[in-house]
Amino acid sequence: MPLYAFEGRFPEIAPTAFVHPDSVLTGDVLVGGHCYLGPGASLRGDFGRIVVGEGANIQDNCVLHCFPGREVRVGADGHIGHGSVLHGCRVGPGVLVGMNAVVMDDAELGAGAVIGAGCVVPAGMAVPERHLVVGVPAKILRELTADELEWKARGTATYQELAVRCVTGLSTVRPKSGPPPGDSPAHVAGWRHVPLHDHRAGASATEATGTPAPPDGPGRDLG
């Protein structure tokens, strides 16, 4: 993986973390245990420190950076969705930042908060714990339900499991020649995590029919 020292500061990665070979870490970057960093993630600690807490995941093509003398801090079990940008902000423990969201300087996301996909959290905004935020600019929509918080926790656990699986299951290969493969089973290990609207639909079906919901996986308002 590309790791770059900058002016005597260099990335530090816990032995139990998985950092994809196509992610880029520069300078003052600290990655805690059981983290997952996806391909294309850029953590640039040249101006200030980037801290990724225990069990957090930073997914594909995320950017973490800050102004000089500041820092970005992602708390334990943070969940940063594909293509998100975190700039000079603090993300509390257990927070979910949805795909392609932007969180600006000095914003503080309270523990367990959820930032909807495509949301822009302006500089200095304080998001309460366990609340849903959506929109451009971001607006606090409502408090999260216990079911939504449980769904988020399971999703983060799935990425913690993926970090372990990647150590032995990920390798570079040459493409196979021959006819394209037919339908293949879902790539599942452990429980099957699904989008929350599917999870909710399964729960509704159970209430109506008494039959078990499909395996688990924040609704459409959470992106």
From TrEMBL:
<dbReference type="InterPro" id="IPR011004">
    <property type="entry name" value="Trimer_LpxA-like_sf"/>
</dbReference>
<dbReference type="InterPro" id="IPR001451">
    <property type="entry name" value="Hexapep"/>
</dbReference>
<dbReference type="GO" id="GO:0016740">
    <property type="term" value="F:transferase activity"/>
</dbReference>
<keyword id="KW-0808">Transferase</keyword>
<feature type="compositionally biased region" description="Low complexity">
    <location>
        <begin position="202"/>
        <end position="211"/>
    </location>
</feature>
<dbReference type="Pfam" id="PF00132">
    <property type="entry name" value="Hexapep"/>
</dbReference>
<feature type="region of interest" description="Disordered">
    <location>
        <begin position="171"/>
        <end position="223"/>
    </location>
</feature>
<dbReference type="InterPro" id="IPR050484">
    <property type="entry name" value="Transf_Hexapept/Carb_Anhydrase"/>
</dbReference>
<protein>
    <submittedName>
        <fullName>Transferase hexapeptide repeat family protein</fullName>
    </submittedName>
</protein>
